[in-house]
Structure formats: C-alpha cells, structure tokens
Amino acid sequence: MASNKFRGLGVALITPFAKDGSIDIVSLDRLVEYQIKSGADFLCIMGTTAETPTLSPEEKAMLKQHLVERVSGRVPLLMGCGGNNTAAVVHELQTSDWSGIDGILSVCPYYNKPSQEGLYQHYAAIAKASPLPVVLYNVPGRTGVNMTAETTLRLARDFENIVAIKEASGNIAQMDEIIKNKPANFDVISGDDGITFPLITLGAVGVISVIGNALPSEFSRMVRLALKGEYNTSLSIHHKFTELFKLLFVDGNPAGVKAMLHEMGMIENVLRLPLVPTRLTTMEKISSIVRELGY
C-alpha cells in the first residue's frame, strides 16, 4: 500500500529567472538549500508557483534532473503532472523517467469543466497509470471546477495509490467533510497558506506553501506546533502572517513571493509573461514587512 510522505511544510518551489529571462540556477540552488536547512519537510516542484506553463519541455526536463540531483534524497520531491487531456497525462506517466521523484501532484482538469463523473474517471485513469503515489489537487479558483468531497472520497476509497489531496477550494466545510470521512491511508494537505492553521486543527497533515519559499523556518515552526497540538503558540505565529498572506496574493502568485524574495536579496524580481511583477504599492508594503522581520 502506498503511503503519504508529504506531511508538514511542503514548499511550492518558485522558478527564479535572471534579468534576461533565463532560468537562474545559482539562485535556485541557494533557495533549495535555504529551504531544506530551514525546516522544509518536502518540496513541490513544477507546480503553478513554478510558472510551469511558461517553461519549455527542455527547461522542464533540465529542472527536474537538476532538482533531483541537488536535493539528493534529503527531502521527498512531489512533482506536478496534470492537465486537461487525460490521455496526454497518462502518456507522460507511462513514458517519463520518475527516478528521484516520490509522488505526483495532479491538478483537476482546467478550462473544459468536466462533470464529477468526468473528474472521477480522469483520476482513475491517472491512478492506474502512475508508478508513483498520487496527490490530487483541487483548486477551483484556477481550474473553473470544484471537485466535491463525495468525488474525492470515492477516489480515496477506490485507489490505494491516491494518498492525499491538496485542497485549495477555500471551502472549510468541504475539507472538514473529507477529513471526517476519509480512509485511514488518505490525507488532506492545505493548499492555502492562510487557512493552514485552522485546517490542521481539523485534521489536515500539512501544507503545500507559497510563503515557505521566503519564510520556511517560521512557517514550518507554525505547522509543527499545530501538528503537535500546541495550538496557542502556533496561532500566535499564524496571526503574525495575516497581513502577509493577503499581500503575497493580491497581485497574483508567484508575483508576491518573488517580490518578497527579491527584497530579501535572494532572486531577481523577474516573471514570465503573461505574469508581471507586483504593483509598486504592494512592493512597498512587502518591503516594509521584510524589514520588520529583520531580513
């Protein structure tokens, strides 16, 4: 039976770009070391936060190989592998080299808005084809379709290698229903930094985090304390981040966290179109918080 390695603080790794728009490997390596040394429990690569839709196939292959070698088994690697063409995702699962990768994160099909039965059949095909444990990813704000608790639970019960869901629906009642009724070998992971604390108090096992790119030490401490049931201390850390949660997403992701990392001196503030850097007013507020935090 597949088990879920993806607990605690997972960082949804950004892709740093140089001023000319190319991938900045030196900054990427620095970020990876910073996150592992600061308490990240696993890394999530090639997700939305990595600007994956703007990477060429050659860049994706290079990044995957480089990150596997760089991390070298120190923490588990969860890699994005999803899409809205089921046959294409199945083909990728069956033909790619997955050595060094510990699981795949597969987003709900976007744009073509399948029914709940369509979502079930899509993930059933993925589960049957995947050589690795599968983490579902429900993010209706980006995909245009919400996977209901009923569909999630059906998949969790029917496929042992579907080990978790990254839930970013924003619907606490839906997430609570999944946690309450899930099988023992299936976990719920927060897909939203801002609700990680309350979700862990309900029974979630961690987060795939954007803010963890910049503040892995503080955020991993909050997650660990919450997982140990030390809610008062964890809650006080959560409240310190409240304003930052809003700021990092007001101009879209990963524009906010890239602005913050730039202010911390870790990367160039470069994104690939159609994404652009945060507005000046947002940048100034982020800069002020970075100074307050002592970076």
Tell me about this structure.
The protein has one domain (8-231): Alpha-Beta Barrel (TIM Barrel). Helices cover 46% and strands 13% of the residues. The chain is built from 13 helices and 8 strands. It has helices at 25-37, 57-71, 86-95, 116-129, 140-143, 149-158, 172-181, 196-202, 216-227, 231-240, 242-250, 255-263, 280-292, and strands at 8-12, 42-45, 77-80, 103-107, 134-138, 162-167, 187-190, 206-209. The chain has an 8-stranded parallel beta sheet. Helix 3 (86-95) links the parallel strand 3 and strand 4 (103-107). The longest helix is centred in the first third of the chain and has 15 residues, at 57-71. The termini are far apart. The mean pLDDT is 97.
Question: Could you outline the blueprint of secondary structure elements for this entry?
Answer:
Layout: E1 8-12, H1 25-37, E2 42-45, H2 57-71, E3 77-80, H3 86-95, E4 103-107, H4 116-129, E5 134-138, H5 140-143, H6 149-158, E6 162-167, H7 172-181, E7 187-190, H8 196-202, E8 206-209, H9 216-227, H10 231-240, H11 242-250, H12 255-263, H13 280-292
Parallel strand pairs: 1-2, 1-8, 2-3, 3-4, 4-5, 5-6, 6-7
Main sheet properties: 8 strands, parallel
CATH 2nd-level architecture: Alpha-Beta Barrel
As residue ranges, the low-confidence spans are none
Strand content: 5-15%
Give the C-alpha Rg. Answer: 18 Å
Q: For the largest sheet, list the strands in their spatial order.
A: 7-6-5-4-3-2-1-8
CATH class call:
Alpha Beta
Q: How many distinct domains?
A: 1
Give a count of the beta strands, DSSP E runs of length 2 or more: 8
What do the pLDDT scores average to?
97
- CATH homologous superfamily? Aldolase class I
SSE string, helix = H, strand = E?
Answer: EHEHEHEHEHHEHEHEHHHHH
Number of helical stretches of at least 4 residues: 13
What overall form do the CA principal axes indicate?
globular
How far apart are the first and last residues' alpha carbons, in Å? Answer: 44 Å
Percentage of residues assigned to helices: 40-55%
- Could you say which structural class the secondary elements and strand pairing correspond to? alpha/beta
